[in-house]
Amino acid sequence: MHGFWRWLAEKWVLLLGFVLLAYLFVPIAVVMLLSFNQPASRNTTYVLDLETFQFTWNNWTDMCGAAGICDSLLRSIYVGLSATVIATILGTLISFALVRYRFIGRGSTNTLIFLPMATPEIVMGTSLLTLFIGLQIPMGFLTILIAHVMFCISFVVVTVKARLAGLDPRLQEAAMDLYATPWQAFRLVILPLVLPGIMAAALLAFSLSFDDFIITNFVTGTSDYTTFPMFIWGSNLRGIPPQVNAIATAMFLISFAFVIAGQLRTRRRSARRAATS
Amino acid sequence: MAALLPTASGTPAATEIPVEPPAGMRRRKWIPYALLAPGLLWLAVFFVYPVFQLVMASLWDPSGSVETGYTFAWAFSNYADAWEMFHVQFLRSLGYALITTVVCLLLGYPLAYAIAIKGGRWKNLMLVGVIAPFFTSFLVRTYAWKAILSDSGPVVDFLKWAHLLGPDGRLLATEFAVIAGLVYNFLPFMVLPLYASLDKLDVRLLEAARDLYHGPVRSFFRVTLPLSMPGVIAGTLLTFIPSAGDYVNAQLLGGPNTQMIGSVIQSRFLVVNDYPIASALSVMLMVTILVLVTIYVSTAGTEEVV
Q: In this structure, is residue B217 part of a structural domain?
């Protein structure tokens, strides 16, 4: 018993941490559970009542069964990938300029990067809506893409900047001392070192774009370019099809597997490096 | 290779190689601007200009409509009208956001501390756990909370059993449900910056504090907390700003008495099409948050948050 109290005194912070993590998982577990439920009607998709729980595989075997659900998923992936590519390129260029060069207007550039992150999404959504209405630009894929790239850029800059700032500037000088041209030094030395940061930024951009609802809600207008979050929101009146839970669970499991695989790879690589050195 | 030879033969190289910035970086002053141009242009056209447009729209003549078109009229009365109609929701949103931020800090600090200081071999796995909610959709997570807090759900059942809630009592459509949803959705935004600053903390400082006869409580408040202030500031901002403008939680978990300013702006824009008032509300929200953030950051005394 004495040993237990000592253990608890040592580990209570860690235990509290795990309890809080468990709290973060509660709704995810509920979504997983509900993905095996056959609700009486679409309006009871999000009712958690074990007495009326009806086990089924249908939501999994017939994922695209609800009209429009998989189309919306594909649209979200398409918008997400497009926005990620553009925002990652634009953001990476900005962070190189900010970290590698001293120039006039650096302070105001930093402010301009910070502002979108300090602005509530609803303000960005409404202001883009007034712009598009004013210019009479038809809402749809293009307006959604424009908006997503806009709010992703700042996050890309911050992420890549952090990686670049940790980089020893003498590496480039060393490469150039060895007669590498600036371009070669960049491509062969700097870029491979910054790549993990760029990849992290791209992942962040994709998840921000893929899951965005508030801004997208404003720039979709009356167009039928419905992204996945917009599909869920739009089904609110008629009730949400239970397949949404199966898709959300699948999304969770796939992303989780990817991240864990990435973790294992870095761990194995550092173990190998430790073994060879 | 010639430049390396003196080093190889053992003589110090530093004196023989002239230290100068690489040729390409020294001369071409236009390079940084070329790198910045595309991204900043995007932000200028699709962030700065629209915000300017929004401010203009907030001063449109309110007697116009979508069909007849609006005219610019310096109609500052829009702001007075907007305040008159919706100050309850406006102040409520700021209040909810404040409570959410405080609760997130109280929950997020122990979690970030556990991961950064006590995590050990669990560290990476715990970090994955913090971002795991992002692997499912924001709306789906909020709907899941709706299920958890629903009238026939487990939480209400338990509270009724424990007589903490009357037979007709419910959690949905209460302030509690809305704030619980906000706390859940924005907790990771608090934990991640806190973790980043606690992870940089030199554990030897804590040992030094202990060696100097500081108890655990005192060394926490005198050493750990002050050193993690940049994380506290970044985390509170990243929690407060999105929760003040959120309307998803209020819409899905709340009722008419818990409506937030985001819902009002949303329905004014997309349902009622009352652009001048909606724009005025949006501008008010943005300016209020910018002012609060500026005051907060300057009193808290960190120069660089990002």
A: yes
**B249 → chain A, closest CA residue:** A214
Domain CATH code at residue A82: 1.10.3720.10
Query: Which residues in chain B touch residue A214, judged by CB atoms under 8 angstroms apart?
Result: 245-248, 262
Interchain pair B187, A24: CB under 8 A:
yes
Identify whether B262 is part of a domain: yes
- Residue B50: name the closest of A125, A148, A91 by CA: A125
Q: What is the pLDDT of residues B251-275, one digit of tens each?
A: 999 988 999 999 999 999 888 888 9
In chain B, residues 274-293 whose CB comes closer than 8 Å to chain A: 275, 278-279, 282-283, 285-286, 289-290, 293
Chain B residues inside the 8 Å CB shell of A173: 22
Residue B68 lies in a domain: no
Phi-psi region of A19 (alpha: psi -120 to 50; beta: other; left: phi over 0): alpha
* Residue A47 lies in domain: 1-66+241-277
Do residue B241 and residue A119 have CB atoms under 8 angstroms apart? Answer: yes
Q: At what angle do helices A2-34 and B138-149 cross, to 10 degrees?
A: 110
Q: In the structure encoding, which two tokens stand for residue A87, read together?
A: 């925002």
Q: Are residues A90 and A215 in the same domain?
A: yes
Residue A2 reports pLDDT greater than 80: no
Length of chain A: 277
User: How far, in Å, CA of B48 to CA of B41, rounded?
Assistant: 10
Residue B97 clears pLDDT 70, i.e. is over it = yes
Q: Which of A49, A252, A267 sits opposite B135 (nearest CB)?
A: A252
Q: pLDDT of A49-102, one tens digit each?
A: 877 888 999 999 999 988 899 999 999 999 999 999 999 999 999 999 998 888
**Whether residues A275 and A180 fall in one domain:** no
Does B38 lie at the interface with A, CB-CB under 8 angstroms? yes
Q: Which residue has the tokens 């167009």?
A: A223
Q: Is the pTM of this model over 0.90?
A: no
Interface contact A107, partner B, CB < 8 A: no
Q: How confident is the model at residue B302 (pLDDT cuts 50, 70, 90)?
A: low
Q: How far apart are CA A151 and CA A149, in angstroms?
A: 6
Residue of A nearest to B42 (CA): A150
Nearest to A130 among B29, B36, B279 (CB): B279
Per-residue pLDDT band for B20 (boundaries 50, 70, 90) equals: very low
Q: Which of A18, A47, A103 sits opposite B33 (nearest CB)?
A: A103
Q: Hunting for tokens 């004014």 — which residue is that? A: B268
Number of domains in chain A: 2
Domain assignment of residue B107, yes or no:
yes
Task: Quote the ipTM score.
Answer: 0.89
Q: Give dist(CA B254, CA B181) in Å, integer.
A: 10
Name the residue facing B244 among A120, A133, A245 (closest C-beta). Answer: A120
Q: Would you call A214 and B119 a contact, using CB atoms and an 8 Å cutoff?
A: no
C-alpha R_g of chain B: 26
Cα B53 to Cα A145: distance, rounded to the nearest angstrom: 20
